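3.2 Worked example (two chains)
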Amino acid sequence: MRDANYQKDKKTESGLKMLKRSPTAVIGLVIVLIVIFCGIFAPWISPYDPIKTDLYSRLKAPDKDHWLGTDKLGRDVLSRIIWGARVSLKVGVISVGIGMIIGVIIGLIGGYFGGITEKAIFSLVDLMLSVPPLLLALAIVATLGPGIGPVMTAVGISLIPIFARVARGSVLTVKEQNYVVSARALGASHLDIMLRHILPNILTPVIVMATLYCAFAIIMEAALSFLGIGIQPPEPTWGTILSHGQQHMRTAAWISTFSGLAITITVLGFNLLGDGLRDLMDPNMRHVIQTK
């Protein structure tokens, strides 16, 4: 028991040491945690109601009462950005979850069985990849209608082929390993081999991709809302704030500036975290980090 606890402590210490030696992962993690904090505690930390209008304070420049100014309806920009973090995180996590789960299942089945099954599945995947993700999402939202549900569905579907190809590539490598061949020789079922021997060993690239594509999903949601076909007012989203702010760029540039910064910093945080996780999970890079 003591040996098990000792090994566990050593692994934790090693993980923390590697994390400290990967500044990109630390910076990205800090940014993401701040955004998550804002999203979770938005009702308590936002200074004003994000949808309450005050025409007497419309287009007010940043001051001590409104740190980031107000928009054309007198709504506090800081409060709307804080609440927008909740929407962006929800869309990012759920849509990536949709794309990852369905994509991994497709990639796992196609990569494992190969042959006609793989050709049939990945012909459809290649067809989806031939359409730009934003265009595909636009078509889906146009069909389903605006709203947070259709946006998450649209972004999730647009990510399915990306995760499917990543999973397939990993499966093609893992299924030739000795432990998989041995399990097959011992009579293990296809389902057992896929779930117990292959799936756990292809999760590393999938997790890294999920982190990186959370940033992509946030950008997609902002783009759809900016175009007016995503999440509809009065729900505060960064894309909607940016869209409304562009009408007043000459007189109230702070509206678009701060909402754009929120998107940029959040996307940067997820990208840095994803890059850091890739380095930490890659055995070759992990060896380099440990020897620094």
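3.2.1 Second chain
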Amino acid sequence: MPSPVSVLLREEIRLLKPFIGRMSISRARALQDTLGGMGAKSVAGRVTFEPADIGECEACFALPCNEPDSRRAILYLHGGAYVAGNLAYARCFAGILSDHTRRRVLAVAYRLAPEHPFPAALDDAVGAYRHLLDSGYEPRQISFVGESAGGGLIYCLGQKLKELRLPLPAAMVGISPWADLTFSGASYKTNAKKDPSLNEAALRRYAKAYADGQLNNPLVSPAFGDYEGFPPSLIFAGGSELLLSDAEMMAARLTQCGCRCELHVEEGLWHVYVLFGIPEARVALDKIADFLELWA
């Protein structure tokens, strides 16, 4: 059962759903960037940020102020359906991750569609990982964390690294990963009325803007990928979100490929609930910190 505060917030979010579904890409970007700026205030005084030069996109490091673990780093890829999310937005959850895990977090504002369609975001992610390697981090000291589109992109990144014969990271955490851009999952129907925020028609527009004609490509829809030899994964999803099937498919595919994968589904909660200041999110952040401490 969701906590009372989560139920209240869920219904408040639901009030915005009709407007979100009709938003243009420019309005969606403005809304997401505003939310990111607001969220960054939650770690003010506990996390600092410094710019990182990784190539064709903006990036920064989030650094915990007290007792940082300089030996280990997280590469964080944000959500936004590949069409929204600037560095101000990415800094928000990067700061929360850094504060909670005591690690350096590299936040990447990868290039966005439709101006920069596939594989621009993937190329930027590869560049960010190379930056960490070039900075002296060993693969065993690096973990990947991503939410929504970024949650799918971390698995696309892993596949690309194998293709490039680069070493994989030590652990991966996907939060409500957008893993199947062909929309084949059952939850797009079963959760259509339950989901308080996501709209399938809007997601289909964004998928087309990002990778029209290539939605079956495992580097776009990682649920169809090959994960033999991948590190352990931790995946979260809300039980009421449209992308629940994506998370389930991703976890099942990893398991089929012989990978260790833990899937946590919070009944009654919504897409990327881990990013919100609710009791269930704090529990999830504890799980992430414990998981990374164990494997990375």
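3.3 Remarks
The first strand starts at residue 47 and ends at 51.
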